[in-house]
Amino acid sequence: MSIEMLAPISFAARPSPSEEGLKKPMEKSGVLGSIDDTQEGSMMASEMLSHPMHPDDPLNPMNFPLHRKIFTSLTAWLFAATVAFGATCFTASKAQFIQDFNIGNGIPLQFIAGLSLYLWGIAFAPIWTPHVAERTGRSIIYLVALPVCGLFILGAGLSTTVASVLVCRFSAGLTGGPCLVLIEGTFADMWSARTTNTYYAFLGTAAYFGASLGPLSGGYLIKATDNWRWTQYFSVILIAVVWIFGLGQSETYQREIPRRHAHKQNKSRKEFCQTQDPALSGVTIGEMLKITVLDAFLGPFTDPVVALSTLFLLFNFAVVFQWFISVPAALGTPPPMGPGYTIDQIGLAIGITGMVGATCAALMSITIEQVSLRVFKKKSRTPVSLPIEHRLVPAMIGQFFITTALFWIGATVSPKFSPLAPIVGTAVYIFGNASIIISVIPYLFDAFPPAGTLSALTSAASARILFASAMPMVILYDITALTPLWAFGIFGFISVAMWPIPFLLFRYGPTWRAHSRYTKVITGMDDGMETRGKVPSRDSETTAYKIGAMGA
């Protein structure tokens, strides 16, 4: 999940398809600028990346009527949640899957791979989706990606060998991943960058709700049908319903909207594209590979902001997906060693804890940002944007809940305790985990100039999903070899070592970003523009262009 990011570059408007029109770009001045984003007239980085439409243009997504914004946002949310649902609904089918393919007892790797390979496929989406979206817009990708994902899930359900199931599951993640990537950009196109944590809190719940509802629904499906294939068939049905609902969604990408109205200027789409500035995500194959492959790979090794953010995210995201394997194993263990929960009871436990934890994290993040905005507004008496380091506050709080939950769960996964104890602990973990995701990813939105931010977000997204896909493969071996107390205790100690990360980013982030290689060169392409100076002012708020990096 979204996606999704960006540092200050001013792009004035092109001639609009409307009467007032998009005018030729006034200027293109890039900066990471003064790290003080509270100045009146300063522009958030995520508001700067590719703004070809005039702020007053009625076609500008920022000017959509409220009902249209809500519908388009809800559609993106449902598409992302449905893809996440497809990942975890499969996890409820362990017993039937093992029996159908006769692959042994316990929880064999062939079954766990059904989840891991789906996530692995999603991990590649941040690499290629931004470049396709630049050339086609967002809406067409939604409408193509989701049904293709559904076809591969259907293929998994119809498969007669484990190998074909796994190939189809990987392909489903690869083709459905763009829905989790694009949601962040879709929201950013329509909602103010001044409230990034607020809108990200809502869109961030898509992955959590979808992933939580998967085992919940899957448990009841297995109980009703005793057939693992229905976890796949139901996912396909859900995809079909959501796809039909989304047929009316609006295009929100500001470089694409004028292209679709080029005929009003008596131009073909190709002719209009030739008048647009080069895509900041790269024009040639080499430029695109540099930004979302080479720079994304090098970022964690060369930039402290990218390194710390990626490390923080990949650990917390990796741990969250092991719950879909370890929780059923723990709760499904028969007495006297375990509570002997049925598959529908296990699904209910996972579903409720996931949704409750994510909802509480979203509400906390929204409250913190809204209160902070009011405090800053009273002090400045002018419209303000919070310094982006303030977006890290929920992560500072949430990380302590991560540590508490890991030790809590490790100590209570035992016949001596009620099964409700680790279940509640899991909800606490999800609260902390969602607080970090909702906080750190929006921070990266505005950390660097466009190409640098896209590289940073791609790095953080792909890394955290790849680690999330690997963790379920090893967690049961860790628990068996070390006992739950030590297996989760080790995670707890690792989380303690990460406590300083959000505080370091808050304290030293402005300095690190100002001296970053991503800040000094905006695109690394032909113009070689340096990002020096102050953030350019504006008369009115413009929209944001963001290329999402998942989510989860």
TrEMBL record:
User: What's the protein's topology in the membrane?
Assistant: Multi-pass membrane protein
Q: Where in the cell is it found?
A: Membrane
Q: Does the keyword Membrane apply?
A: yes
Q: Where are the transmembrane segments?
A: 70-95, 107-128, 140-158, 164-187, 199-218, 230-250, 305-325, 345-371, 392-411, 423-445, 457-479, 485-506
Question: GO terms for CC?
Answer: plasma membrane
Q: Which branch of life, at top level?
A: Eukaryota
Q: Which Pfam families match?
A: MFS_1
| Location of the region described as Disordered in the Swiss-Prot/TrEMBL record | 1-33
Entry-linked InterPro entries: MFS, MFS_dom, MFS_trans_sf
On whether Membrane is a keyword of this UniProt record, the answer is yes
Keyword line: Membrane, Transmembrane, Transmembrane helix
Domain (Major facilitator superfamily (MFS) profile) spans 70-513
Q: GO terms for molecular function, please?
A: spermidine transmembrane transporter activity; spermine transmembrane transporter activity
Q: Under which name does UniProt file this protein?
A: Major facilitator superfamily (MFS) profile domain-containing protein
Its lineage reads: Eukaryota, Fungi, Dikarya, Ascomycota, Pezizomycotina
